[in-house]
Amino acid sequence: MSAxxxxxxxxxxxxxxxxxxxxxxxxGLLLDDERRPHVRDMLxxxxxxxxxxxxxxxxxxxxxxxxxxxxxxxxxxRVLLGMLDVDxxxxxxxxxxxxxxxxxxxxALRQLIEDRRLEIRSAGTTRWSPDFAVFExxxxxxxxxxxxxxxxxxxxxxxxxxxxxxxxxxxxxxPAVQAAGARFEQxxxxxxxxxxVISNTLRLHAP
Length: 207
Prior knowledge:
Blueprint: E1 28-31, H1 39-49, E2 52-57, E3 76-81, H2 86-95, H3 100-114, E4 118-122, E5 132-136, E6 148-153, E7 168-172, H4 174-189, E8 192-193, H5 195-204
Parallel strand pairs: 2-3, 3-4
Antiparallel strand pairs: 1-7, 2-5, 4-8, 5-6, 6-7
Helix pairs in contact: 2-5
């Protein structure tokens, strides 16, 4: 069974179910691929509200990304890749020529690059498990009153199918998020910049 692509129908301001069942904010949440909120819902929500987002992902398939411009409001987004797939870059850029949704997603990515809000590094020989993402600067006064969050596990960015459950934990604030952020900083320092490769590929195949 392969994982279906999930595209959130909710606007960025909509709050995913993130309570303890009694209306109180939960400190943690387990997401799976069979019930809402889906990973895609949570990613879109957090990206649209955070001031910074850091991703440590072993593989990203750009052709499968579908983030809207109104979801990419972060002032800084850093992505550490375990593997840079050049073929995937070209595939994504070419797909954008004939697919309006893909074109819109790639244009949003290009805008992040042009605004100098996106940084991408390749991790080289550094490895980690599982993938994780740290979000900071969330509006404490909003409907989801937390300042930071961390998603740990399957982030849905690799475009690969799965034959079993897809599980992701979300931790809201506190020492656990701080620890994840500190570990990201450690492995980020060992990576090298590959944003130019991605930017040039997208520019070369721009419609």
